[in-house]
Specification:
The structure is a homodimer of 329-residue chains. Chain A has 329 residues and is of the alpha/beta class. In chain A, 41% of the residues lie in helices and 16% in strands. The first copy, chain A, has a six-stranded parallel beta sheet, sandwiched between helices. In chain A, strands 7-6-8-9-10-12 form a six-stranded mixed beta sheet, sandwiched between helices. Chain A binds a DNA duplex (30 and 30 nucleotides) through helix 2 and helix 4.
Chain lengths: 329, 329
DNA sequence: CATCGTTGTTCCAACGATGTAAAGACCGAG
DNA sequence: CTCGGTCTTTACATCGTTGGAACAACGATG
C-alpha cells in the first residue's frame, strides 16, 4: 500500500507537498501539482485513515447502538443511518444491545472517543447514571427516565392518539392496547396517547384491556392477543405498540378464526416493510424513518463541532397508513 | 482522555512499562504492576485503537458488504456476523450496495487495507474483473461468475431439491418456480435443484412454470404469482427462491382467493423470522445463519494471518421448516 | 571478584499523516 | 541593489502506541 512518502519520492517533492495536494491546499505550483497528481494516480494512493485520524484527533466513525438488527424497524433504520452518515464521510459502527441493561452498558462502555466521534442511541433499559458519555450523542425515540441528551423522533403521544382515533372513527368501542411496559419510554407515551383518544371520545378507560409486553417481538404480541381473546368480553379493536406485536396478534386472531377487521380491527406502529404484505395487510403508524436518520446525523454534526450542550428535541413527521386490518377493501 | 503517558507519569514508570502491563507482558515487578494497575484504574485509561492499529499495521475492522439491511435475511445475518466478529475483537463495518453493479464497485473501492483487515462479500452483479481485492475476503452464497474467493454457504442445489421433493411428496404435480435470474449465482443453482427434483420424480420440466424475478423483493413475488395465476393451467405448488418472493406470492394468492395450501402449496427459502408468523405460516428452507456467520469470520481469521491462497468452500447445514403453507394443521 | 544469564526497565524509532515554523524563491517598489 | 512582501516548499515535531535494543540490577557461578 502506497504512503505519502512513496508518492513524494516518485514525484520528487516533499511529503508535505503531497499532503497539501491531497488536502486541496491552494498554494502549490501548477507543475508540481501535476507531477504529484500523476504520482498519486500511478501509485493508487489511498490515505491511511487511522493515521490521519490519529493526527486529526477524530475517528471518522459514529456508533449506532440499537437492540437488535433482526428487528425490522432497527434494520431499516440502520440502513438509512448508514446512508445518511456516508454523505458526511462518516462510517457507522453498529452495536447490538439485545435490549438488556448489561448489553447496553457494555455497548456504552466500549464507546470511547478513540473509537467513535459520536453516537446514536436507542436505549431501552439504561438508568440515568449510565449516561456519562464521553462522546456527543443523540437519542432516538423516548426514554423512561429523563436523560441529558438531545433526541430525534416522532411525537409518540400524538401518533398514538391518531391511531386510536382512527379505530374510534370506525365505530370501535372496546379498544385494547398491547405493549404497556414501565421500562420503556415510548410505551408510556403511546399509552398516554391511547388514553387521550379514549377520553376525547368519551370512552371509558378499562385497564383490563391494556396488556403489557416485556419484549416487543411477534411472540409477545401473539401471547398478549391470546389473553385478550380469552376474556369474557373481548375487544373489537387492538392498538399494538409496534408492528411485530401486531403481526403476532394477527397470527393469534387467525388461529382462533377471529376475522380481521370485521371482528377485530388492528393497528400497528412503525410501518415495517412486511406489514404491507401480510394478509390482511396491517394499518400502521408510519414514522418517516429517513427523516429520523437524517436528523440524527445532522444533529451529531452540529454537536461534534461545538461543545455547547443545548438540548434539542427534533420532531419528525409521521402518517397513518390505512390498510386492510382496519378497513375492508 | 488519558494516554499511556498520563498513566506512566502517575505510576512513576516509563510509558513502555505501562504498555507492557496493558498487554500482559510477564516480566513486570509485582509492585510496579500494582502501581500501574492502580494508575490505570484511576485514570480510566482506554487504549487509543487508532494509534495501536497504526503501530500494529491492522485496523480492527472487517467489512460486511451486502445489498441492503432492509432485506430481513441480510439484517439477521448482519446481526450474527457482528456477534461472531466481536468474539475475535473485530468491529464490523456494513456497506450497502443495493444490489447494483455500481453500488458494489463503490463499496469494493472504499475497502482498502487501511480501513479494514478483511471483508465478507455478498455480491450480486460483480464481474470477474472486479475481484481485485486488496484485503482477504470470503464470499457468502454463490456467484454467477467463477471467482477466486473462498465461500461459505449452504448447498443450494441440494436445498432446492429438498424443497421441491417435499412438494412432490405432498402429491403436487404442477410445481412452479419463482426467482429465476441469470445474473444471480444462487438462482441458477436453485433452479438446477428444482429441475433435479422434478427429473427424479419423473415429472416434466415446463419452462412456462419458471418465472424470472429481477429483484427478490415482496413486490416481485406478488407480480410473478399474478402471472402464474393468469395461466390457463395454473400450478398447484410454487417454489420461491427466497422468503420475500414467497410472502409476495402468498399475498397475491390471498387477493385472488386462492387457498394455501389446499389449492396452492408454497415453499420459501431463507426462513426469515417473519415467515413463522404469516397466515398461513411459510414452509421454508432454513439455512443455519449463525453457522454461516461464524464460518465466515473464522475463515477470515485464518486468511488474515497467512497469505496462502487456498480456496475453501465451507458448506453449512440447512433444514426444511415445514409449516402451514404446504401442510394443513 | 569477575563473569554470566535472567529479569526488569528505559530509551529510541517507527507506524502514516498533518500543523507549525522557518527557509527559499520570486516579484515589484524604493 | 536592497528591502519587504507574497507565494511555495521543506524540515521537524507530533498524535498514542508498540517492537527492539540497550541498559541496569540481581543472584548465582566459577
Amino acid at each position: 500500500m502506497a504512503t505519502l512518502k512513496d508518492v513524494a519520492r516518485l514525484a520528487g517533492v516533499s511529503v508535505k507537498t503531497v499532503s497539501n495536494v491531497v488536502n486541496g491546499y491552494s498554494f502549490v505550483k501548477p507543475d508540481n501539482r501535476a507531477r504529484v497528481e500523476a504520482a498519486l494516480e500511478a501509485t493508487g494512493y489511498r490515505p491511511n485513515l487511522g493515521a490521519r485520524n490519529l493526527r486529526r484527533g477524530r475517528t471518522g466513525f459514529i456508533a449506532l447502538v440499537l437492540p437488535e438488527l433482526s428487528i425490522p424497524y432497527f434494520a431499516e433504520l440502520a440502513g438509512l443511518v448508514i446512508a445518511a452518515a456516508q454523505e458526511h464521510e462518516w462510517n457507522v459502527l453498529i452495536e447490538q444491545t439485545f435490549g438488556t441493561l448489561s448489553g447496553e452498558r457494555l455497548a456504552l462502555a466500549s464507546l470511547g472517543p478513540h473509537l467513535v466521534d459520536a453516537a446514536i442511541l436507542s436505549p431501552e433499559a439504561l438508568q440515568v447514571e449510565d449516561f456519562q458519555l464521553s462522546v456527543p450523542a443523540v437519542m432516538l425515540g423516548e426514554h423512561a427516565v429523563d436523560v441529558p441528551l438531545s433526541r430525534v423522533g416522532i411525537d409518540n403521544v400524538a401518533a398514538a392518539t391518531f391511531a386510536v382515533r382512527h379505530l374510534i372513527s370506525l365505530g370501535r368501542r372496546r379498544i385494547a392496547a398491547i405493549g404497556a411496559n414501565p421500562q420503556r419510554g415510548t410505551a408510556a407515551l403511546r399509552l398516554e396517547g391511547y388514553r387521550a383518544a379514549l377520553a376525547e371520545a368519551g370512552l371509558p378507560f378499562d385497564s383490563s384491556l391494556v396488556v403489557p409486553a416485556l419484549n416487543y417481538h411477534r411472540a409477545d404480541g401473539a401471547a398478549a392477543m391470546k389473553a385478550l381473546l380469552d376474556m369474557r368480553n373481548p375487544p373489537d379493536a387492538v392498538f399494538c405498540f409496534n408492528d411485530l406485536l401486531a403481526v403476532g396478534a394477527m397470527r393469534t386472531a387467525a388461529e382462533r378464526f377471529v376475522r380481521v377487521p370485521r371482528d377485530l380491527a388492528i393497528v400497528g406502529f412503525d410501518n415495517n416493510d412486511e406489514s404491507a404484505y401480510s394478509s390482511p395487510s396491517l394499518t400502521s403508524i408510519a414514522p418517516d424513518k429517513a427523516a429520523i436518520a437524517r436528523a440524527a446525523v445532522d444533529l451529531l454534526r452540529e454537536r461534534a463541532g461545538s461543545p455547547d450542550i443545548e438540548l434539542d428535541d427534533v420532531q419528525t413527521p409521521f402518517s397513518l397508513q390505512v390498510r386492510e386490518s382496519t378497513v375492508t377493501r
